[in-house]
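Running this now, will post back.
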Amino acid sequence: MTKPPILFASFAVSLIASAALAAAPPADDFGDRFTGKTLRFDYFHSGTKGEERISLDEVRLEGEWPGSRRRLVDELGLGSYLFEVVDAATDRAIFSRGFDGIFGEWQTTGEAAARTWRTFHESQRFPEPRGDVRLVLKRRTALDRLETIFAQPFRSTEQRVNRSPREPRGTVSAVFQNGDSATKLDLLVMGDGYTTGEQDKFHGDTRRLVAILFDTEPFRSRRMDFNVWSVHVAAAASGISDPRRGRWLDSPLGFRSNAFGIDRYALSNENRAIHDAAAAAPHDSLVVITNTSKHAGGGIYNLWANAPADSPTAAYVFVHELGHSLAGLADEYYSADVAYLPTQRPVEPISPNVTALADPAKLKWRELVSPGTPLPTPWNQAAYDRVMNDHQTKIRELEARAASTEEIQARYRDLKVAAGPLLAAEQFAGKIGAFEGASYQAHGLFRPELDCIMFSQNRGAFCRVCTQAIERAIRQHGE
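Update: finished.
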């Protein structure tokens, strides 16, 4: 689960990516521009639905820069926000990354619409520049514009950069390595809610879920492009907080279910603790496994993904949420409860796997559409919705009375058994088209295939559109 994507004109992705490529510095001058170290820009992000403010916390020295030394400027054009390091002498971005954050999600909730003011801690990591730069944060608007919301001159030799040495907050292990971090995507798995005595369990859970990920395309074919690390951070008690059931634990990374009032959504507001622990290992992408059997996870683009280790749905959630955090994929389902206020008039989403289909001739994945497939693509949505609504009503009732994890999991299993055959029997099952119902809206938004890991638990594979988006993200980080 992740936030509804910020919406843009249909050509946004290609224009932003083209602009980034045009502005990119030469690929062979990394050593001239950067020291090779990693800095972390920590800040506070505050506001309501209609306003936001950024204030600097600190800039923190981490370890060696683990990311690509060639693809430094964002090429994907995804995310509600863009972070840039701008060279002061040339006024050109020498590093940039699109991203989403918890603040951006919270802005779409009823609490933010009521003008309640809240603050979230956020971080952006970047290679340490040698010269004078500006640190810039921009927000993408509904008019396909990048508006600056923060800009501040920065010189890495300033005394305010926190260079104090820190002991690792956890135990680092290599799950597997395929080469230099500069030419690989470093995936870091951390655990929350694992005690010292459960370290072996954490490593076993990590190996199991990582094996499932790399048995799923395109990760299976691109395994050699990855290094995978793990960090065990010891907890005082086993498990994470479950507020709806009155269970509160001081887990080291702060993950808890019932985020924004959604029982199956798990988040953490302990951003600094997460990044301090992650700094112990190289990482381009971060996933946290929580020591719980409850079906609750989350994923936010270029922030982190999280999944429950012991839920029967763990394998699905682990892979699904990484689709959000690594590749900026949107949720394709539309019938489950979410905290976000509905979009009244859908326009073209920036997410690569959802479209408003304003002009079928300009469909963003038109080159993948199966021959003879009509756009929009017909399917028996009414029959599917009847099954989904019946099961979702029962799940809501179970969650409202804080039913046991086993009861809720049984209902999810029943839903999978009931819905899978309906999708598989459709005329255009397995075809690329434009199927109505996506991104929490039953009408007005469309997904590429009837089923996908981003749509349901019925199919253990990404559709071809999502697969392409994941491969683009792998190249951004690992080349």
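The mean pLDDT is 89. More later if anyone needs it.
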